[in-house]
Description:
This protein has about 220 residues and is α/β, with parallel strands linked by helices.
Amino acid sequence: MQPGAIMDKKVTPMLKQYQEIKKQYPGTLLFFRLGDFYELFYDDAILGAKELDITLTARHRERGQPIPMCGVPHHAITGYVAKLIRKGYRVALCDQVEDPTASTKLVKRDVVRVITPGTAIESQLLEAGENNYLAAIFGYEGATGASFLDVSTGEFWATEFTGESAWQKILEQLEAFSVREILYPPSLEPFVRPSTAEPSTELTETGIDRDVAKATTILD
Length: 220
């Protein structure tokens, strides 16, 4: 099951707010701050409860359309996020961005951070003594290039290959760097999906700008 949400048309203002924010972050488990807890709703709750081994409950049972939900204490969120990203999930943290005691209306909320397997930086989210590489792959003019970044340390490597064995060499590099996450353009989807088991994110073609990369990176 992938992170998602079963959206209802008739919901409270708070759940409508949740749904509007959720639509902006597909493919993530959206932790929604409610008081002292971060809550998951709908399909996210079903998946989160299973992966985190926490109790799955529901809202609005009395209305005949119970909404699946589960929650974790806000002060313990880092540990739960660590469990999820180590399993390859992407997490979005939606926080209260105004003082709830100073508001008489619905508290404003917004996503303050998206955490993925390759972008974690806190020690609690990382494996001690190991690099946490995020890889990006791009193909152009008969060549295939790859870059590797450990966001937690700033270490960066880049390489490119040509010829019939280019893709195989890229796969060898992915294995050598023990990457935690792969970014790639749609044109490489037929190659990435069948060849790798690591969490991967498909970017738009405009999400990888070769000219910018060439201007800011020197390849030895």
